[in-house]
Design a protein that fits this description.
By secondary structure, the chain is mainly alpha-helical. Helix 12 runs antiparallel to helix 13. The radius of gyration is 23 Å and the shape is globular. It starts with a helix and ends in a 19-residue tail after the last helix.
Length: 433
């Protein structure tokens, strides 16, 4: 009994570590566009996101119930299986963070859980219908729905503002971006913090502390909310940089449309018990908003790497989870070995990340990764969609930094000491997101 109690404590701590990595891995979902367009300073953005993640954790438990009693059969499940699942999820989260890829923490958790359960009790331990209806189908549909909604919202926004100088509306759109980013953060806490609640509740059920089908206790909800909020505050700057300047170019109106569409999709799914990947929803919305503006270009090279990470997440985390379960099933020495490997792997990834650190000071610096992102020509898909989109607002200057640069150039040209012809300022570029 003492061994089970100790192991259960280790599993709970490991689950909270996963929740922490989920927080900094997914900060970009809410705040990448807000940071890149200058609507909020980086530290202020992650502080706001962390606070609303904590609040969101208390709004619903439907997703937690799906995980604790839906994906796998909890009868006869050993606590070691949950530990092995968390090992797979944490290592995949850290690896994709190191590479700056916005993969799904949710799918990493599901993959680790499924792989460990199959290794322990066979395929019969997995509820295939639940996995299909509440994990796989939403994973395919959600980014498409959010992307189409963001594309439509962006086109409507530009059409309604076609006769308005965006210089006069930029502040309003930035305020809207802050509000919509807060809504995404609230939705992220409502959806993603519940996944850790579900895992801890499942561990408590396997340890005999709770009855099957129980809701998460208040202390589980609170600890999961605090863990994801702390991770969010520290900020996953590598992934923020990818989503902030790697996928497409967004002006504040597009950022507002993308974030509002994503938040609506996530909040609706949370109350239905669908365990969506907020990363996939927000990435789809960002690309949709980029395509909604005429001339917008999606960087498909970056997007293709992201899609590959999405496809690999479930099987890769599943394989690691299965391997970890193979070790933990050997007894105490296997559990200890698995824990040592988790710590060693995490330490190695952190050490590698220090070779080229990214933080709030250089997250928007194009040369932070050793070179600027090369321009990518518009592809067939982008060209086809952009051709029927409304044109951008005439004279638009979407970012404050670009406005200042344009005014500075104009001022310097007008003050040419020789009184000769002046060189007109270069046209302002939209903020890269």
């Amino acid at each position: 009994m003492e061994h089970i109690t100790l192991l259960l404590g280790i599993v709970i701590v490991t689950a909270l570590v996963f929740d922490f990595t989920n927080g900094f891995h997914d900060t970009a979902n809410a705040m990448a566009t807000t940071i890149s367009t200058g609507a909020l300073k980086p530290k202020a953005a992650v502080a706001l996101s962390a606070s609303l993640n904590l609040v969101g954790a208390f709004l619903s438990v439907e997703v937690a119930k799906t995980i604790s009693g839906g994906i796998i059969d909890e009868k006869g499940l050993r606590t070691e299986v949950i530990f092995a699942a968390l090992v797979g999820a944490i290592l995949w989260n850290l690896l994709t963070w190191l590479l700056g890829l916005p993969s799904s923490s949710s799918h990493a958790l599901f993959g680790g859980l499924i792989g460990a359960a199959v290794m322990s009790a066979g395929w019969s331990s997995v509820n295939g219908s639940t996995v299909i209806t509440k994990v796989l189908l939403p994973a395919v549909a959600a980014p498409l729905v959010a992307g189409l909604a963001a594309t439509l919202a962006t086109r409507i926004t530009y059409r309604l503002g076609s006769r308005t100088d965006e210089r006069h509306t930029a502040k309003g759109y930035r305020a809207g971006q802050i509000a919509s980013a807060g809504l995404v953060s609230l939705a992220h806490g409502t959806n993603d913090a519940q996944k850790t609640m579900g895992i801890i509740t499942l561990a408590l059920v396997t340890g005999g502390v709770l009855a099957p089908g129980s809701n998460p206790p208040v202390w589980v909800i609170t600890s999961a909310g605090l863990a994801i909020a702390l991770g969010t505050y520290l900020g996953g700057w590598r992934i923020i940089r990818t989503m902030g300047r790697g996928l497409t170019e967004l002006a504040p109106p597009q950022g507002f449309a993308a974030q509002t569409s994503a938040a609506t999709a996530i909040l609706a799914s949370s109350h239905l018990g669908f365990s969506l990947s907020t990363t996939q929803v927000c990435s789809g919305a960002v690309m949709g908003a980029g395509l909604g503006r005429k001339g917008g270009v999606v960087r498909w090279s970056t997007a293709s790497r992201m899609f590959a990470a999405w496809g690999l997440t479930l099987p890769a985390a599943g394989l690691v989870g299965a391997g970890a379960e193979f070790l933990t099933s050997r007894g105490t020495w296997g559990v200890v070995t698995t824990g040592v490997l988790l710590v060693a792997g995490s330490g190695l990834i952190w050490t590698l990340s220090r070779r080229r650190p990214v933080d709030q000071h250089n997250v928007n610096d194009p040369a932070a990764d050793g070179g600027s992102e090369p321009a990518e020509p518009a592809g067939v898909v982008t060209t086809a969609i952009a051709a029927v989109a409304p044109p951008p607002v005439r004279g638009a200057v979407p970012a404050a930094a670009d406005t200042e640069a344009a005014e500075s150039t104009t001022s310097e040209s007008a003050a040419a000491p020789d009184g000769g012809p002046t060189t007109p300022p270069a046209p302002a570029k939209p903020a890269t997101v």
